[in-house]
């Protein structure tokens, strides 16, 4: 649906060159909710804005719906752009126009007839739950309501692709969740492909099936959310994951462990799927005749499955604990020693 091939983007400012994107390649399939996460300045917005040709790459290809943007005629390009809508952090509503007129605007610009506009705007205000606000002005709405209007305006043209640039960053956590749920519904009910850039892991965890992590103009990790979250490789990815999946042993437990006289080793185990953890832990204590103490556990729901992190202190001889470690790795379960 959307492909970025070896995208380089350079900006020239006051005679100085800065490279915002180094060599970015990504593929977003139809139906994806694809999240791009990174700190400020990573190049997320620059990348997003290439999809609707608000930015053009210095080198590299952007392909949308099979069309390479740099090579098609203006007419074809405007056809591609008609299929793409965008929502923004600060909503970008026209303050002097009513809610109805804001939502109607893209259709008015496309010279759609009045009766069709009326019907379509009503439908969408209903869909976003703000049918009663059609005569209000943006200044009379909360942030969450403004974003719902932004979403209604984005959908009014029946797009196939929705671009979201920090769409929830100006909202409180509860409102964020309600907007994310709305985006998920849009994806499922209208089969709209969503590309969302954010610095909030919450967004990725709640709705994305795919994620790319960007750092200084590069994509450093990308793939299924479960795979990237479950086994982050790079420091930046680990930092982001930590903001939603905690794996630190509480300090009081650390103190207890340090006071413990028996020989022990602390291992962190990761499991995917609800029921995987219990049988393994029981089996380990039986098979190796060791005592264990779960010092930290966290189960996070991701894309309909669960990621369980268990940090366990095992008490026993070093040779037995070595065996235990190998036994687990042989079963393709993630295990690593935690130094306490
Ligand atoms: N028009 C421009 N002219 C010059 N430099 C630019 C321009 N647009 C972006 N940049 C630079 O490119 C880099 C990437 O910017 P971009 O806005 O894509 O980052 P971002 O990841 O979206 O950051 P944020 O989270 O703050 O929105 C930044 O260093 C920025 O200053
Ligand atoms: Mg940005």
TrEMBL record:
<dbReference type="InterPro" id="IPR041701">
    <property type="entry name" value="MetN_ABC"/>
</dbReference>
<dbReference type="InterPro" id="IPR045865">
    <property type="entry name" value="ACT-like_dom_sf"/>
</dbReference>
<dbReference type="GO" id="GO:0005524">
    <property type="term" value="F:ATP binding"/>
</dbReference>
<dbReference type="Pfam" id="PF09383">
    <property type="entry name" value="NIL"/>
</dbReference>
<dbReference type="Pfam" id="PF00005">
    <property type="entry name" value="ABC_tran"/>
</dbReference>
<dbReference type="InterPro" id="IPR027417">
    <property type="entry name" value="P-loop_NTPase"/>
</dbReference>
<dbReference type="InterPro" id="IPR017871">
    <property type="entry name" value="ABC_transporter-like_CS"/>
</dbReference>
<keyword id="KW-0029">Amino-acid transport</keyword>
<protein>
    <submittedName>
        <fullName>ATP-binding cassette domain-containing protein</fullName>
    </submittedName>
</protein>
<keyword id="KW-0547">Nucleotide-binding</keyword>
<keyword id="KW-0067">ATP-binding</keyword>
<keyword id="KW-0813">Transport</keyword>
<dbReference type="InterPro" id="IPR050086">
    <property type="entry name" value="MetN_ABC_transporter-like"/>
</dbReference>
<keyword id="KW-1278">Translocase</keyword>
<keyword id="KW-0472">Membrane</keyword>
<dbReference type="InterPro" id="IPR003439">
    <property type="entry name" value="ABC_transporter-like_ATP-bd"/>
</dbReference>
<feature type="domain" description="ABC transporter">
    <location>
        <begin position="2"/>
        <end position="241"/>
    </location>
</feature>
<dbReference type="InterPro" id="IPR018449">
    <property type="entry name" value="NIL_domain"/>
</dbReference>
<keyword id="KW-1003">Cell membrane</keyword>
<dbReference type="InterPro" id="IPR003593">
    <property type="entry name" value="AAA+_ATPase"/>
</dbReference>
């Amino acid at each position: 649906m959307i492909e970025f091939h070896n995208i380089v983007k350079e900006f020239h400012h006051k005679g100085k060159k800065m490279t915002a994107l180094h060599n970015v390649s990504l593929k977003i399939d139809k139906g994806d909710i694809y999240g791009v996460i990174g700190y400020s300045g990573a190049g997320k917005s620059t990348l997003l804005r290439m999809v609707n040709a608000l930015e053009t790459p210095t080198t590299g290809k952007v392909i949308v719906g099979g069309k390479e943007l740099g090579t098609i005629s203006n007419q074809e390009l405007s056809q591609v752009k008609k299929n793409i809508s965008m929502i923004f952090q600060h909503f970008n509503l026209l303050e002097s126009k009513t809610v109805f007129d804001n939502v109607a605007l893209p259709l008015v610009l496309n010279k759609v007839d009045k009766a069709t506009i009326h019907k379509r705007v009503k439908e969408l205000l209903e869909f976003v739950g703000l049918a009663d606000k059609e005569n209000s002005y943006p200044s009379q709405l909360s942030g969450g309501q403004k974003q719902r209007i932004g979403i209604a305006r984005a959908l009014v043209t029946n797009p196939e692709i929705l671009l979201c640039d920090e769409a929830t960053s100006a909202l409180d956590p509860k409102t964020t969740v309600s907007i994310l749920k709305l985006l998920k519904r849009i994806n499922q009910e209208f089969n709209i492909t969503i590309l969302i850039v954010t610095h909030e892991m919450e967004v990725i965890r709640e709705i994305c099936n795919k994620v790319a992590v960007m750092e200084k103009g590069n994509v450093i990790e990308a793939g299924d959310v479960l795979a990237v979250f479950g086994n982050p490789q790079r420091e930046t990815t680990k930092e982001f994951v930590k903001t939603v999946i905690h794996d630190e042993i509480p300090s009081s437990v650390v103190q207890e462990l340090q006071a413990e006289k028996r020989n022990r080793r602390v291992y962190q185990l990761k499991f995917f799927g609800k029921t995987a953890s219990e049988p393994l832990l029981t089996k380990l204590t039986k098979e190796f005749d060791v005592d264990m103490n779960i010092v930290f556990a966290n189960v996070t729901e991701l894309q309909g499955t669960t990621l369980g992190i268990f940090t366990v202190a095992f008490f026993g001889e070093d040779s037995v604990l070595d065996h235990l470690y190998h036994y687990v790795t042989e079963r393709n379960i993630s295990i690593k020693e935690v130094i306490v």
